[in-house]
Design brief:
By secondary structure, this protein is of the alpha+beta class. The chain contains four helices and three strands, in the order E-E-H-E-H-H-H. It is elongated. The protein starts with 8 loop residues before the first strand and ends with a helix. The relative contact order is 0.12.
Amino acid sequence: MVHLMTNPTKGPNGVYYYVKRVPKDLIDKIGKERYSISLRTKDPRDAKRLCGETDVQKEREFAALRVGPQPIPFRDRGRGRQPGEMLVEKFQLLKVANLLPMKARQHVRA
């Protein structure tokens, strides 16, 4: 599939806009049939560059909407320990090394 880049559209005030039709399968999720976003420039070269960047961003958003929400993976960096246990160990190490501020040391009990 060939991906054609959307060209910027010049508005009546001379400012360029990114205008793109929303894919049919995403109209219900997005709630509109087309995007029209100001590129905030009157320079055609800047408009072409910004239009390309915006097009890539919108295509990524469309792909993410098609896939749906994904769970965030939990990485156990503590080698089998629970996150709370790691935090307690860190505070205990800091308390032993006297690196905690005085107020924090009073609240942490070994």
